[in-house]
C-alpha cells in the first residue's frame, strides 16, 4: 500500500456535498440534528472548526464523552461552499516555503475568513498517524454562510460513535472498523497556499 501524502483532505463526499463533523453540548446539538439546521442559539459570529475526519473528531471529543461535546453531528454541506472556504483560507500558523515571510502570513491571516490546521490523522484507537488531517476554521461571513447557506443536512452520529467505541472496548476492532464512515481523498483544487 502506498504511503499517503503528508497532507490530504479525506472525507465522505458526493458529487455535490462533503460531510464534516462537529461536537456540541446537547442544548445545541440536539435541536440542530432534529431540525436539520443550526438553531438561533448557535453563534454565527464566532469562529467554528469543522473536521472531515470522523476519527479526528472522535479524538477531539473523546468518543462523545467530553463535557460540552456529548452530541456529535455529521453536517453535510455543499462542495461549492467548502471549496470556496478552502480557496479563501490561510494557514493558522506561519510556514516557510508557503508564505514569503512572517509579515505576509500575518496579513493573509488578518484578511482570511477561513483558516486551516493540519493535525495528525488518527487510527482506530486514536493514536496519531504520520499523515495529517484537515481542520477548517470558519469566521465572520464564512461561518454564517456555513450555518445558513451551505448546510444540506445534519445528522446525530452520537449513537454510531458510542457503538464503535463499545466494540473497541470489547476488543472487536474488525466490527468497529466496519462501521466507520467511508472517507476517500477529496478532489479539491491544488492548495499550495495551504501547504498541500
Short note summarizing the structure:
By secondary structure, the chain is α+β, with helices and mostly antiparallel strands. The chain has helices spanning 26-35, 54-61, 79-88, 102-111, 140-150, 158-169, 173-179; strands at 10-11, 17-24, 48-50, 71-78, 90-91, 114-122, 128-138, 151-156, 184-185.
Describe it:
The protein is an alpha+beta fold and 196 residues long. The chain is 35% helix and 26% strand. It has seven helices and nine strands, in the order ββαβαβαβαββαβααβ. It has helices spanning 26-35, 54-61, 79-88, 102-111, 140-150, 158-169, 173-179; strands at residues 10-11, 17-24, 48-50, 71-78, 90-91, 114-122, 128-138, 151-156, 184-185. The protein has a four-stranded mixed beta sheet with strand order 3-7-6-5. It has a three-stranded antiparallel beta sheet with strand order 2-4-8. Strands 1-9 form a two-stranded antiparallel sheet. α4 links the parallel β5 and β6 (114-122). α3 (79-88) runs antiparallel to α5 (140-150) and α6 (158-169) packs antiparallel against α7. The relative contact order is 0.24. The mean pLDDT is 95.
Strand order, largest beta sheet:
3-7-6-5
Distance between the termini: 21 Å
The topology string of helices and strands comes to: EEHEHEHEHEEHEHHE
* Principal-axes shape call: globular
Largest sheet: 4 strands, mixed
Q: Percent helix among the residues? A: 25-40%
Amino acid at each position: 500500500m502506498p504511503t499517503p501524502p503528508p497532507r490530504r483532505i479525506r472525507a465522505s463526499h458526493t458529487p455535490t456535498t462533503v460531510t464534516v463533523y462537529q461536537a456540541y453540548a446537547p442544548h445545541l446539538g440536539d435541536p440542530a440534528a432534529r431540525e436539520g439546521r443550526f438553531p438561533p442559539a448557535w453563534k454565527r459570529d464566532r469562529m467554528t472548526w469543522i473536521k472531515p475526519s470522523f476519527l479526528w473528531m472522535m479524538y477531539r471529543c473523546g468518543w462523545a464523552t467530553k463535557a460540552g461535546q456529548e452530541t456529535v453531528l455529521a453536517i453535510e454541506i455543499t462542495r461549492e461552499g467548502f471549496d470556496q472556504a478552502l480557496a479563501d483560507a490561510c494557514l493558522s500558523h506561519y510556514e516557510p516555503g508557503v508564505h514569503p515571510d512572517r509579515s505576509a502570513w500575518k496579513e493573509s491571516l488578518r484578511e482570511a475568513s477561513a483558516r486551516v490546521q493540519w493535525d495528525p490523522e488518527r487510527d482506530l484507537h486514536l493514536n496519531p498517524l504520520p499523515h495529517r488531517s484537515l481542520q477548517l476554521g470558519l469566521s465572520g461571513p464564512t461561518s454564517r454562510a456555513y450555518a445558513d447557506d451551505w448546510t444540506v443536512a445534519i445528522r446525530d452520529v452520537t449513537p454510531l460513535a458510542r457503538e464503535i467505541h463499545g466494540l473497541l472496548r470489547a476488543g472487536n476492532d474488525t466490527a468497529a472498523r466496519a462501521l466507520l464512515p467511508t472517507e476517500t481523498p477529496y478532489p479539491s483544487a491544488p492548495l499550495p497556499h495551504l501547504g498541500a
